[in-house]
Amino acid sequence: MRNLSRFHLTGLRAAEAAGRLGSLRAAADELGVTIGAVSQQILKAEEQFGRSLFERLPKGLKPTPFGQDVLKYLNAGFAEISVGLALAERRRDDVLTVSVAPVFASKWLVWRLQRFHEQYPDIRIRIDADVALVDPDTSDVDVCIRVGWGNWPHVKAEKLIDQRIFPVCSPPLAEGLRKPADLAGAPIIREPTPMFGWNDWLGPNGLDESILGDGPVFSDASLCLDAAVAGQGVFLAWETLAGDAIAFGRLSAPFPDRYATGIAYWFVTSKALPQTRAVSAFHDWLKGELASMEN
Fold first, then answer.
1. Could you tell me if residue 14 is left (phi over 0), alpha (psi between -120 and 50 degrees) or otherwise beta?
2. For residues 40 and 20, is the Cβ–Cβ distance under 8 A?
3. CA distance 232 to 226
4. Which of 251, 262, 263 has the alpha carbon at shortest distance from 167?
């Protein structure tokens, strides 16, 4: 490995990030430096190699044939270094950092964490409410709870529970909803960019969303649910979002049918790093809590 002393590692790191991410801007964001700094570091690396690693194109960087050969090994090498550093920095067995979508955290998880603390009083949990899937190999996050199709690369994803959808509304509004076709006369609460549509619930009932009228639009599901509690309309919800509000009588589910969308909640961890006792305990507890919803 003596040849490592002949090259600036910062230049190699900049080249690896730019090649993997496809642009100087993305590499600068990841490395926490300016675009100009990344460009200069790549130029220094190319000077040391005596050959160009990239073609500079209007749409970004394109590795040269030589660059493709070099970057392949740089990618693999820095990935291994990252795993090794994450393993060295892995926290104690009594601390757990969980990254979870804000809606799942606020409407379901935080209301149950006391039961986890009672069962595992020696494990301290830190909740990071975020929708982005972080890399558990290189971040301080031990576990991500995410909703989707589970096809994320380079992580281990175990299905927790299928997401099943159904209409919800305030109890007074539910009194006028005897059959699915009655939704045509109710205000409909909507999200701008939902992961599923009303047809996923109406279709099995022989209807489609063309029967639905207008209603208020809110930026996220949590606000939509609050609007439904306030009697502003009918919202297409799911168990972990609306289950507690239904159990406490703040919401009603006027129809019994609940349909899967193909989307599910997933327990996402590192493929490479060993699973700690805290991760195992949280996994088992979470599975048990979600299973109780299906019974």
1. alpha
2. no
3. 9
4. 251
Domain spanning 95-161+263-294: CATH 3.40.190.10: yes
Confidence band of 248 (pLDDT split at 50, 70, 90): very high
**How far apart are the C-alpha atoms of 280 and 158, rounded to whole Å?**
13
- Tokens (6 digits) for 201: 């619930």
Residues contacting 197, CB < 8 A, separation 6+ = 209
Q: Are 90 and 273 in contact (CB under 8 A)?
A: yes
Supply the pLDDT for residue 149.
92
- Quote the tokens at residue 56: 């500079």
Query: In this structure, which topology does domain 2-88 adopt according to CATH?
Result: Arc Repressor Mutant, subunit A (1.10.10)
Q: What is the pLDDT of residues 191-210, one digit of tens each?
A: 998 889 999 999 999 999 99
User: Alpha carbon 115 to chain centroid distance?
Assistant: 24
Are both 95-161+263-294 and 163-261 of the same fold? yes
State the pLDDT at residue 254.
97
At residue 66, the 3 state secondary structure works out as helix
User: Measured between alpha carbons, how far is residue 199 from residues 90, 170, 207, 212, 259 in Å?
Assistant: 45, 22, 8, 10, 11
Quote the CA–CA distance of 251 and 229 in Å, as a whole number. Answer: 6
Query: Could you tell me the CA-to-CA distances from 289 to 110, 111, 142, 153, 283 in Å, in that order?
Result: 12, 11, 19, 27, 10
Q: What angle do CA 128, 129, 132 make, to 5 degrees?
A: 95
